[in-house]
Amino acid sequence: MDPVRNPYAPGAGQRPPELAGRDRELEVFDVVLERVARSRPERSLVLSGLRGVGKTVLLNTLRSQAIGRLWGTGKIEARPDQPMRRPLSAALHMAVRELAPRHRAPDRIDEFLGVLKAFALRANAGGKIRDRWQPGIDVPAASGRADSGDIEIDLVELFTDAASIATDVGTGVAIFIDEMQDMAPDDVSALCAACHELSQTGAPLIVVGAGLPHLPAVLSAAKSYSERLFRYQRIDRLDRISADFALCAPAEREEVEYEPKALDALYEASGGYPYFVQAYGKATWDHAPRSPITAADVRVGAPEAEAELAVGFFGSRYERATPAEREYMRAMASLATADTEGEAVPTSEVARALDRKPASLSPARDALIKKGLIYSGERGTVAFTVPHFGRYLRTQPA
């Protein structure tokens, strides 16, 4: 079939042609936006799940919902080596710029921007003059507000002022944070404290974070009350009906159909993980000679999808690991069976498989967690952050 008409989109954060299986999350966020708009108490939102389940796509879709309701929005992607002041300053700057045209008092906007600039410039504290960063805000920095240098104090004050701008125009502010588990502990603590303060006052500012499955544990370690502070939603693979819809709906728009056995084969290959659904769907389309698409077409296209995943999805992550880290991951993979693929394994079992003491493997385990290749959902266990990664590792030479 014509590859130009291929509707599938296996890309990092790229919205698929049909956002299947996420209606509940979209409805929940609509309720959050409406409640905040009516000055009703509401919690910020945290999405967690494995890589490839569509967290970034969903985060971008939720942001579009907020923009559709005339909210001010900003988005950042957390990184382990980057403090929060700079990216958060840019995100709030963008959010307030979206609200500014509807504000009746330009002086109020300038006052906030002065506070925002003061907050941002604290990122330069102690740095060399030639390395100092300028936030690109064309008003003088204010003094005495959000500039103490204590990120927890400053963030509470900054969020409070941003929420007050939103109140003036009868709307809200939403800050979207991807890869939230990579934030520094002090920044996580400050963010929780700021959200806690705003939730008590009913201020119209919310945070929507997305991250790996252990993100709730990261938040809980920062502030014990975070378990009650956020609305948590686990984003998982698609059920069979949703996976079939993700394939069939865009194909029908191109007047192409699937045989039932082809859909069986595609679900078995993809496991229902949205990224894999798109990857296998795209390869199958390109190899199918005509409609309807058959199970034989899936078998012909699958090796191409697997080869692309091996390089771009699995291989790029595997290459980031050191030999010791690869040995640790291969031991994890060796402990899985067909029935337990993707489940957490005890670190004691990994040590036993390698005939090593658990303490001697801590550096490799901690480095893999920091690189986002594995996570520890509960004490004494580890699991891969990437679906089917164990299966991939078992095909790699030692």
TrEMBL record:
Q: Which InterPro entries match?
A: AAA_16 (IPR041664), Cyt_c-like_dom (IPR009056), P-loop_NTPase (IPR027417)
Among its keywords, does the record have Transferase? no
A Gene Ontology MF term for this entry? heme binding
For this UniProt record, give its keywords in alphabetical order, as a comma-separated list: Heme, Iron, Metal-binding
Limits of the Cytochrome c domain:
167-318
Q: Where is this region: Disordered?
A: 1-20
Q: Does the keyword Hydrolase apply?
A: no
From the Swiss-Prot or TrEMBL record, give the protein name.
ATPase
**Protein source organism:** Rugosimonospora africana
